[in-house]
Design a protein that fits this description.
The protein has a domain at 60-159. It is built from two helices and twelve strands. The chain has helices at 2-23, 54-57, and strands at 37-41, 48-53, 62-66, 71-75, 80-85, 92-96, 106-111, 115-122, 128-129, 133-138, 143-149, 154-157.
Length: 159
């Protein structure tokens, strides 16, 4: 009887060794590109509060390079943080804040080309700007920065 148990254990061991590699999942490198986002909720089983992107988790901001001509308009995507104008200046550049925006979110408008009296920031529906920002000049190499307060649904210019 003991011989059958030993034989059974030996056969099970050989099968386990032989099947292990065939059942194992391949190992892949876990690089983070910076574009990863997850749908997040409030508490277990709570309602979705939108996307949480890796750039927010690692204290970064998604950078979007913007260019064009004529009357340029940009609607900031949720989770987007920095808009950088590149290339020749347009006749106007109108930017609309992201909706939804998360509490404490930064919005940065920067440029590599001087944009003279042509930059306007407008608030998305249900949001407001603490201080109007219309037909403003952004000098090359500078930026304007706002931060969002979800409690007041207001964007405050901080620089």
């Amino acid at each position: 009887m003991k011989d059958y148990r030993r034989l059974l254990i030996a056969v099970a061991g050989v099968l386990a060794l032989g099947l292990g590699p065939s059942l194992a999942q391949p190992v892949t490198q876990q690089d983070v590109s910076g574009n990863e986002c997850w749908n997040v909720g409030q508490g277990p089983g709570g309602p979705s509060v939108g996307a949480l992107c890796i750039n927010t988790v690692r204290n970064g901001a998604a950078l979007a390079l913007i260019s064009g001509s004529g009357a340029a308009t940009t609607t900031v995507a949720p989770g987007q943080g920095v808009l950088m104008w590149t290339g020749a200046a347009p006749t106007t550049w109108t930017v609309t804040t992201p909706s939804p925006a998360f509490d404490g979110q930064y919005l940065v408008l920067g440029t590599v080309t001087t944009l003279t009296t042509m930059v306007t920031l407008t608030a998305a529906s249900g949001q407001s700007l603490a201080t109007a920002y219309s037909a403003q000049t952004l000098t090359a190499g500078t930026s304007a920065v706002w931060q969002y307060s979800r409690g007041t649904t207001t964007w405050y210019r901080i620089r």
